[in-house]
Write a structure and sequence with these properties.
The protein is of the alpha/beta class and 294 residues long. It contains seven helices and eleven strands. Helix 3 crosses helix 4. The radius of gyration is 25 Å and the shape is elongated.
């Protein structure tokens, strides 16, 4: 294990003794590694990157459970999971109860140190630089016309703690298609389920997506239409079994999923044809040894 930053990562990736690299991190870092490995096709590069992940809540009968799933998806680990929900897509005019319940839960969330008493739901983001960047992204959404429902605040000065942010960006034009790697959930209201699927796919990423509510037929359509590598129904976006492949498409990866498939990248395929003893014959294209040439 080596603790470091971009320079250490670049040095490790450039080490001539490695046969491949399995990387988990941001899309920007993944793109840099992809360029670095461009002239080394003999080395395996497996990228598991970030996501601008959609959570669609549609005609759910249990609003309280849907709100809890939304909070878990968006704010678990202070939003520092590649599978965290970044966009909450709901039906316009029919989501007020859901949003109110999410706001109530946000108001109850404890943000504090890991071993504080009472135990917190959320700790800090990784460092002050990361906290500053998330705040800049939040301010950018506000400046573009986003309507804050719960503000993203810094409760402890000069420390990387952030409170859960909830913002309605339905009317924001040219919404940034980026991963906000922190506790920010953006609400987008759409007119119908087809529009919800279109909005879920309105991203260059393609890691995780979830549908909460709906019918089995709607989930079949959702599963078949949404471009993502991890697709859940009535479960958070950040839940995936370790005995299944894990990864995404677009800016979320390079079609080499981790988890169950990861061990395959540490080996190369070999094809072997076998027989219990040698057998061979040549029946055509040979001269008859009993015939003499003129």
């Amino acid at each position: 294990m080596l603790i470091g930053g971009p320079e250490q990562g670049k040095a490790l990736a450039a080490e001539p003794g490695i046969d491949g690299l399995l990387f988990t991190g941001s899309a920007r870092a993944g793109q840099s590694l992809h360029r670095q490995f461009a002239d080394m096709p003999h080395k395996i590069l497996a990228l598991e990157l970030g996501g601008n992940n959609p959570l669609v809540v549609w005609h759910t009968k249990d609003v309280e459970a849907a709100a809890i799933i939304a909070v878990q998806s968006a704010y678990l680990s202070a939003g520092q999971r590649c599978t965290a929900a970044r966009r909450l897509i709901v039906e316009d005019g029919k989501a007020d109860k859901l949003i109110a319940e999410i706001q109530n839960l946000i108001d109850l969330i404890i943000v504090d140190a890991p071993f504080a008493d009472p135990p917190p739901f959320m700790g800090p983001v990784i460092d002050n630089g990361a906290a500053d960047h998330v705040q800049e992204q939040w301010l950018n959404l506000m400046m573009k016309g986003g309507k804050p429902l719960r503000r993203l605040d810094r409760p402890f000065e000069e420390r990387p703690y952030l409170t859960p942010g909830l913002i309605d960006v339905t009317d924001v034009k040219d919404r940034p298609d980026e991963e906000i790697f922190g506790p920010v959930l953006q609400i987008i209201r759409v007119k119908d389920f087809d529009a919800a699927i279109d909005e879920a796919n309105n991203t260059r990423f393609g890691l995780a997506a979830s549908l909460v509510g709906g019918t089995p037929e709607m989930y079949d359509k959702f599963w078949a239409s949404v471009r993502a590598g991890v697709i859940n129904w009535n479960r958070p976006t950040n839940g995936a079994p370790s005995n299944a492949p894990f990864g995404g498409i677009g800016l979320s990866g390079n079609h080499r999923p981790t988890a169950f498939y990861a061990a395959d990248y540490c080996a190369y395929p070999v094809t072997s044809s076998e027989a219990d003893q040698p057998r061979a014959s040549l029946n055509e294209g040979l001269r008859d040894p009993n015939m003499q040439e003129d």
